[in-house]
Amino acid sequence: MYQATKHVLSVCEHLCALLPESERTKPQVLLLAGGVVEYRNDTDRELALRQESNFHYLTGCDIASSYVCIAYQPGTSLDQHPSVELFIPEQSLADMMWSVPPPSIAAAQETHDVTSVENLNALLAAIEKHVKAFPTALFHVLPRSSPLFPTLSEEYLAPILAHEGGAVTDFYLLPALHRARLIKDEHEISLIRKACDISSRAHETVMRVLGAAVKGGIVPAAGAGVDRPLLPSEWLIQKEAEAEAIFVASTRREGAVHQAYLPIVAASTRASTLHYCCNGGNDKEFAWGPIGAHDHQNNNSLSSGRQLKPQVLLIDAGCEWTCYASDITRTMPVGNGGKFTPEAKAIYELVLEMQKACMDILKPGLHWDAAHLLSHRVLVRGFQRLGIFKSPNSPNSGSWASEEAILASGQSTAFYPHGLGHSLGMDVHDVPSASKPAVNPSINNNAVELGHSSFYQYLRLRVKLEPGMVVTVEPGIYFSPHLLASIRESALIDHEVLKRYESVGGVRIEDVVHITADGMENLTKVKSDVEWIEGVCSGAL
Ligand code: GLY
Ligand code: MN
Ligand code: MN
Predict the structure, then answer these.
(1) Which portions of this protein are annotated as coiled-coil regions (predicted)?
(2) Of 182, 208, 229, which closes a domain?
(3) d(C-alpha 75, C-alpha 77), whole Å
């Protein structure tokens, strides 16, 4: 069973630590609304509910339109055992006829780690009971003006506000939840591991379908796709949408209900668009004919006599498992018999080297800024080796600069503009207020070497690592015309060499890792070494 009461205790402890001293010993009451089913316009059909993350964290409850009321007070019987009262909607005849009704009270009691379960019509009386029993209580709610959280009906706040001195605050609860959620317990790790396992198999499935086609192993029978639809075993991947479909189908057939975010499926130079998924993303054919740099309009029609151009296919996709996310990126070769071109291979190996260097140093106490800076350092070193940044060995070395000087210039940001990774949990960019605090002594007191300020614009994790954190490690190298515009005149770069690599588009490799007591555990099963990726994508493995 989902260990909700442990989470409640952790949140209450964090909450009290955030309160002014004078408020800490008072009773604290937490009131949260769960997610509500939404309907697609004029279809009379509900959209799939994805429970609000904080509500799920405190209750493990995925029943729509539920509420929870939690009471806690340090130094009393509620100290180690806060009361957690869950309120779920009654089963209605209409529900039973049209849809899957909420469980009975008895069934919900069996499956939820809470103090009690009642029907929603008992909630108002329960709030009035808390107001009477704890006249000095502080009532905590999630931010009320934010569209990110379910609306807490005014009806339920009225009895609190009607009480003399009744206080409702939305200042402390969300930061307390984020701090608690930053550190995952074993059960949460097992749910993230399961999401990663399913997503790993989905990534591998896409690669194996590509490889089978290279070997001529996917040959639709006569009439398939004309007289009858193609069967899944006849599906080829020749378009971004086809790769996305196979990824999503693979996760769904293993029971995943939601993707943790819209998949990003970008072929060829479109891989340089970081979040290429919406508004025309994931929707182009692979490159068969001439294709321009950063071409989002590639519309060449397929014809049997033409060869796929050598190109990369970047897939950044991960499903959820019972509200816990995965977030995995693999970049694979398409065309060229399922092998990378020499340029794509060089960039791929460098991104892998950036990832490995960072993973090697991950352990509790390490500041994430230091790992991020290291990833830029490895990029700069690798680009000097390839001759993109001039080095003393470059044929055109007139104005070469040292690794330190290139790092200080910030020019690596033009190739790697995003952060090394982020906290991951119930949400993909999990617990932002705890992972990148607005007031952050860990960076303001010069505790870590920072490097150029441009490295940090999109870094979403800026604290020291602790055991139980789950983070992504996702370096990338991109050749985006928009970003390269800033370095076109740079004297540090050999522009002739750079030109040779631009058609690679982009490479990102992203794994999910769990910070352990003395290092890290990679939760991502799908492999990423060149030999394996090329072996599978060429159909040899
Ligand atoms: N999938 C979005 C990211 O990697 O952060
Ligand atoms: Mn990510
Ligand atoms: Mn990702």
Answers:
(1) none
(2) 182
(3) 7
Contact criterion met (CB below 8 Å) for 339 and 308:
no
Task: Give the number of C-alpha atoms closer than 13 A to the C-alpha of residue 87, restricted to the C-beta side.
Answer: 19
Q: Model pTM?
A: 0.95
Say if ligand 1 is within 6 A of residue 261 CB.
yes
According to the model, what pLDDT value does residue 398 have?
Answer: 72
Neighbours of ion ligand 3 (CB under 5 A): 316, 327, 510
Q: How many angstroms does the Cα of residue 458 sit away from the middle of ligand 3?
A: 14
129 with 59, same domain: the answer is yes
- Distance between Cα 350 and ligand 1 center (Å): 20
Residue 212 CA to ligand 1 center (angstroms) comes to 28
Question: Looking up tokens 């070395």, which residue turns up?
Answer: 397
Nearest ligand, measured from the Cα of 275? 1
d(CA 332, CA 536): 10
204 and 115 housed in the same domain: no
In the 3-class helix/strand/coil scheme, how is 13-59 assigned residue by residue?
A: HHHHHHCCHHHCCCCEEEEEECCCCCECCCCCCECCCCCCHHHHHHH
Q: Which atom of ligand 1 is nearest to the CA of 474?
A: 4
For atom 4 of ligand 1, which residue has the closest CA?
Answer: 327
Q: Is the CB of 474 under 6 A from ligand 1?
A: yes
316 close to ligand 1 (CB < 6 Angstrom): yes
Ligand nearest to the CA of 331: 3
End-to-end CA distance of the chain: 39
Res 508: pLDDT: 98
Identify the band that residue 305 occupies on the pLDDT scale cut at 50, 70 and 90: low
Structural domain of residue 317, as residue ranges?
A: 186-537
pLDDT confidence bin for 294, thresholds 50/70/90: very low
Distance, in Å, from the CA atom of 9 to the CA atom of 26, rounded to the nearest integer, reads 16
